[in-house]
Amino acid sequence: MTIHALMETANAMVADGKGLLAMDESTGTCNRRFASAGIPQTEEARRAYRELLVCTPGLAQYISGAILFDETIHQRTTTGVPFTKVLSDAGIIAGIKVDLGAQALAGHPGEKVTEGLDGLRLRLTTYYSMGARFAKWRAVITPGTGLPSPACMDANAHALARYAALCQEASLVPIVEPEVLMDGDHTLERCSTITHELLLRVFEQLDRQGVILEAMILKPNMVLPGLGCALQPDAETIAEATVSCLLRSVPAAVAGITFLSGGQSAEQASARLNAMHQPRFSMRRPWPLSFSFARALQQPVLAAWAGNDANRTAAQAALLHRAQCNSAALRGEYRSAMENA
Ligand code: 13P
Does residue 1 have a pLDDT over 80? Predict the structure, then answer.
């Protein structure tokens, strides 16, 4: 595949009014979310749930791509259609999480580095042949007293860049996801400082590894105070902090930016995304700004489904509603009244 084709895929992922559905929870994470919703933690329950998501009628109007997990990319509908085919028939691009999770970083208590580079070239080729056209790798940064360390940020930035270069070689658009966690009591300003420093290191490494920025997507956290911080600012303040931080840190050549939700409520994520699409911010930024939410799209869906197939239509309606709210946010037209519509 040419770089031109990769750029086309990247642009399609952030097409007007559309965002990504992150449904790439690892088995452990999916099971934890099922357990708290009282749903049995079986492979069949996970398959049925993912079938419900990918088969939601009308989803492609708001969703450009779906990020799958290794288990999911191998799964089929009850009638035997591979999920990748369901998605491509609907006009939704299939993507795949390829990192193997965050592990303790040696010599740095409390910090993690994401693993999965060994054998990645071969796995990427296999996923491409199965229909994936983009990939995702998440690095996790934990704010704390004296944290994150430069060593942790550098190790993760280096791995992200090696992964991204391998993706482009394998004709997959890399989603580069450096996440500053919301855990802790850090302030908005502290999150901004860490996010800025981290992104500078990530883009330095991406440049060093020869990653073509026009053929990649950045998936950052919004700039937010920790969940334990006493001061929780309004959506406007968060939009200002986030857009300013990104403008100082992200080259204009990047094809697009799609936020993770990171533990915000579904409504908060939509409201903050909406605030970033008011004209005073939109006119300042060179890249499309969209969403790649997991929890902020799926939490209401899981609650509506509750593991019972009789609730399938209601669960799909919940997904469509969240996708529609976030699509409206991309035009700056999301209103909290939409939640009661
Ligand atoms: P959340 O939106 O739930 O943070 O998940 C996004 C994601 O893809 C995490 O890797």
Answer: no
Q: Please choose, from the candidates 198, 180, 201, 193, the residue with its C-alpha nearest in 3D space to the C-alpha of residue 244.
A: 193
Q: Which atom of ligand 1 is nearest to the CA of 293?
A: 2
Query: Atom of ligand 1 at shortest distance to CA of 296?
Result: 2
Cβ 155 vs Cβ 178: under 8 Å: no
**Domain coordinates in residue numbering, the chain:** 3-334
Which residues are marked as active site? 177, 219
Residue whose Cα lies nearest atom 10 of ligand 1: it is: 138
Beta-carbon contacts of residue 252 (< 8 Å; ≥ 6 apart): 286, 287
List pocket residues of ligand 1, CB cut-off 6 Å: 22, 138, 177, 260-262, 293-296
Residue 341 has pLDDT above 80, yes or no: no
Which pTM was predicted? 0.98
β-strands 217-218, 93-97: how paired? Answer: unpaired
Helix (H, G, I), strand (E, B) or coil at 27: helix
Ligand 1 centroid to 26 CA: how many Å? Answer: 11
Architecture of domain 3-334: Alpha-Beta Barrel (3.20)
Per-residue pLDDT tens digits for 49-71 = 999 999 999 999 999 999 999 99
108 with 152: CB under 8 angstroms? yes
Is residue 289's pLDDT more than 80?
yes
